[in-house]
Design a protein that fits this description.
Layout (H helix, E strand, L loop, with lengths): L3 E7 L2 E8 L2 E7 L12 H5 L10 E3 H6 L11 E3 L2 H19 L4 E2 L14 H11 L5 E3 L5 H10 L12 H7 L2 E5 L19 H10 L3 E5 L13 E3 L6 H14 L5 H7 E2 L1 H7 L5 H8 L3 H13 L2 E5 L10 H14 L8 E4 L30 E3 L3 H6 L4 E4 L2 E4 L5 E5 L3 H4 L3 H8 L4 E6 L4 H4 L3 E4 L8 E3 L6 E5 L12 H11 L3 H5 L4 H18 L7 H7 L1 E3 L10 H4 L11 E2 L3 H6 L27 E6 L13 H5 L7 E4 L1 H6 L7 E5 L4 E8 L7 E5 L43 E6 L28
Parallel strand pairs: 6-17, 7-14, 8-9, 8-12, 9-10, 11-23, 12-13, 17-18, 18-19, 24-28, 25-27
Antiparallel strand pairs: 1-2, 2-3, 4-5, 4-19, 15-16, 20-21, 21-22, 24-29, 25-28, 26-27, 26-29
Helix pairs in contact: 3-18, 4-18, 5-13, 6-7, 8-11, 8-12, 8-13, 11-12
Length: about 775
């Protein structure tokens, strides 16, 4: 058999694989990608690995006792036939709907899953459950959830990923770019939905070459590429709001605030000004631990030139995360450059590749219809654990009230709750409560090991799809390179058969095969493109060529419409420095204006006496979230098999820790093991670790046990940002670190669970 070369796509880029005799023998990035990611080698290395789920599997205790609360994660699994597994799932879905109602199903699967538009499993599970009668869904996201709720109240828009002028405008007009939280190069290798060209890092370099000066405000010098030559202002974590308010105050004090802009384009200016009286550079210096003179100097520099303010998404993933969003807009308004080329503010430059990219504006994408969801119950994604543990409880959310439903069945596809949920010990407790947990997974991830029924799903290398990202200028064909490994099936096919068993197979699949669906989705997008004057090639031509790329549209200046006289989507039509609406909610943890509110945990809190290090968790350079953790690149980055944690050399020396030591990181919520790495470019008092190391409990199924592998969410805070957004606060966490005195336990994160023999038919429930 001759070698075949096929193209596929992923969140980390388009790449080609060479297949010979049914095996992948070579991997190459797409020729048109100027900065391809090394992550393209990860999935081909894992596709036939031992960590694959070979066949449908059911937790042994579930087979013996049937549905019910359980200490999941400790028991062996029993491999069963597809017929039996699908029958179990279909029967359980029908039982829960009949006894407890549709809202008892949680289908708010969260995760990046596949970059493909058809086989995007979180979308498929919603289509499947919705057509079956409905389900409880999630609200918001972990990436920028606080901004997603706060920004509509401030500027009338929830389009967080597009809150940025494009890089062409910055290169031509910006002269100072202030990066609150940074713009780390590692984040620019990924984008939700895929990347055809990695361009963000080159755009930043072009901005530097054009004379743009960069200032990094954050606890790690590495959060801006060394090539930018950024000035570093190493503030305490979680104090960005105090710094921004002080900068506003200094602009007022020195007569540098643009009062005409504030009067014309902002609402509530005078009331906001009253709230920052006395909050000057000296006030902020004691909170942020930076010299007052540095704050005054930065205020003058920003007012003297065309300045772009950028805030990373990570800054708002903290207690009171709505406040830095509001303060950023206020500071930009005081400078008076919002809507001018190269001025104003942007959210998430460098957070992913596509923020600020010159885009072909409004390019429609092939989109799988989700269908209806008659159930109206929703829960903020940051509050899912409370929902599972406290059914019936009501919480405030965005001026209203939400009541947690009583969830009996969790259907999880395309994500890893043991990666993105804060306070994993609380998650283990919450995960024991549902009667049934169903997971689709290619690999034995922590979520699969803690499920009742595991259905083996294909990877992107085993199916056909179309990559078409929101922040990209084209589509890419994702062609099947391998037949399904072991007993794996496509998520779409699994749901289609389940829907058939439950009586709505035609409504779900609409009689189309995989390739017929891809043609249908593409032709629908092509028709929408034609309506706006964009002509796409035929599906056959696109599939044969493999990529479709459109030229970027005109340069985009964020909020230019404000200066053109068009009102914003706020009640006043202006930027709301003081929101009467939010103030009317009467919530002390989110007043109607930008305010410095002390986080529950930060280096100025009393708890810092016991836990004197602020733990920050960030996107890893060697995988995507928890995807590809078993791949060679991620394993090579480990220290003694564990995720590395960075400490300042002085903090390490004070604790007798040397580079390469295994250390224990702990607080009152939990503890995990990691490998020490010393970093002089990290400010003292801060520890930093990447997210995504697969949860590897010392005692599986036992809440409170240590993680052996380096999962930071054993110690992070599960608290809503505020009553407004109720989003994640994982960046507000105090810990202590100590050298592990004893020999560390072996890492078993990538070992499949034990398998047990099946029960005789007479011993099965209902026999």
């Amino acid at each position: 058999m001759s070698a075949r070369r096929l193209q596929t796509g992923s969140h980390w880029g388009v790449y080609d694989v060479t297949v010979e005799h049914g095996a992948i023998t070579a991997v190459a990035p797409h020729a048109r990608d100027p900065r391809p990611s090394p992550l393209v080698h990860g999935l081909p290395a894992l596709v036939r690995g031992a960590v694959r789920v070979a066949r449908p599997a059911v937790r042994a205790g579930y087979l013996r006792r049937g549905p019910g609360p359980a200490a999941r994660g400790a028991e062996p699994f029993v491999e069963v036939s597809w017929e039996r597994a699908l029958a179990l799932v279909a029967e359980e879905l029908a039982r829960v709907r009949e006894r407890h109602g549709d809202a008892a199903l949680y289908g708010g699967s969260y995760g990046w899953a596949s970059a493909g538009r058809l086989h995007h499993s979180p979308s498929l599970v919603k289509r499947f459950l919705g057509l079956g009668g409905g389900y409880t869904d999630k609200l918001g996201n972990h990436s920028f959830g606080a901004a997603l709720v706060a920004m509509p109240r401030i500027i009338g828009s929830a389009a967080v990923t597009r809150m940025a002028s494009d890089w062409r405008v910055i290169v031509a007009h910006t002269r100072l770019m202030v990066l609150f939280g940074g713009a780390h190069p590692k984040n620019m290798q990924i984008d939700s939905g895929g990347v055809t060209r990695h361009s963000a890092r080159d755009w930043m370099r072009r901005a530097r070459d054009a004379g743009v000066q960069f200032v990094l405000v954050g606890p790690s010098r590495a959060d801006a590429a060394e090539e930018l030559g950024a000035e570093w202002l190493p503030i305490r974590p979680n104090t960005d709001t105090a710094l921004m308010l002080a900068l506003c105050s200094e602009l007022l004090r020195e007569g540098l605030a643009d009062r005409e802009f504030l009067e014309r384009h902002c609402a509530g200016t005078q009331r906001f000004v009253q709230t920052i009286a006395g909050k000057d550079a000296a006030w902020a210096a004691t909170i942020c631990d930076v010299p007052a003179q540095a704050i005054r100097s930065l205020a003058r520099r920003m007012a003297a030139t065309r300045t772009m303010l950028s805030m990373s998404w990570a800054v708002q993933r903290a207690d009171h995360g709505e406040q830095p969003c509001w303060a950023l807009v206020a500071l930009a308004a005081f400078l008076g450059q919002i809507g001018l080329p190269g001025g104003g503010f942007g959210l998430g430059y460098g957070a992913v590749n596509g923020v600020g990219a010159p885009l072909a504006g409004g390019l429609p994408r092939p989109t799988l219809p989700l269908g209806p969801n008659p159930v109206k119950a929703r829960v903020p994604v940051g509050r899912v654990l409370d929902m599972l543990l406290e059914p019936g409880r009501s919480i405030p959310y965005d001026g209203g009230t939400l009541t947690y439903p009583d969830i009996r069945l969790v259907y999880s596809c395309g994500g890893n709750p043991f990666h993105h949920s804060a306070d994993v010990n609380k998650l283990v407790r919450a995960w024991q409560r549902p009667e049934t947990i169903v997971v689709h997974e290619p690999f034995w991830t922590p979520a699969a090991k803690h499920a009742d029924i595991v259905l083996p799903a294909t990877t992107t290398l085993e199916r056909n799809d179309i990559m078409a990202a929101e922040l990209d200028n084209g589509y890419a064909a994702m062609k099947q390179a391998l037949p399904p490994v072991g007993g794996a099936r496509n998520d779409f096919d699994i749901f289609a058969e389940l829907a058939e068993r439950l009586g709505y197979g035609e409504a779900f699949a609409e009689g189309r095969s995989e390739m017929q669906w891809l043609r249908h989705l593409y032709d629908g997008a092509a028709a929408r493109c034609a309506a706006i004057g964009v002509v796409l090639p035929s599906f056959d031509a696109f599939w044969e060529h493999g990529t479709l790329e459109l030229p970027p549209g005109p340069e985009r200046v964020w909020l230019a419409e404000l200066r053109e006289g068009r009102p914003l989507g706020t009640p006043s039509g202006k930027i709301e420095l003081w929101s009467e609406t939010v103030a009317g909610f009467g919530t002390a943890d989110c007043p109607g204006y930008a305010a410095w509110l002390e986080p529950a945990e930060w280096l100025g809190a009393p708890a810092a006496a016991r836990f004197p290090l602020h733990l920050l968790s960030h996107q890893p350079p060697h995988r995507l979230h928890s995807q590809l953790d078993p791949a060679p690149a991620s394993r090579a980055a480990k220290v003694q098999g564990r995720e590395p944690i960075a400490l300042h050399p002085d903090d390490a020396a004070a604790r007798g820790i040397a580079a390469g030591d295994v250390v224990e990181v702990f607080n009152d919520r939990g503890r995990f093991l990691a490998g020490a790495r010393l970093d002089p470019d990290l400010r003292r008092g801060v520890a930093q670790i990447a997210t995504g190391a697969w949860y590897d409990p010392l005692e599986p199924g036992v809440p409170g046990t240590a993680d052996k592998h380096g999962n930071p969410n054993l110690v992070t805070l599960d608290k809503g940002t505020s009553s407004l957004a109720q989003c994640t606060s994982v960046q507000s966490a105090l810990v202590e670190v100590r050298r592990l005195a004893d020999a560390p336990p072996p890492v078993t994160a990538f070992e499949p669970p034990a398998l047990a023999p099946d029960l005789p038919s007479s011993a099965r429930p209902g026999a």
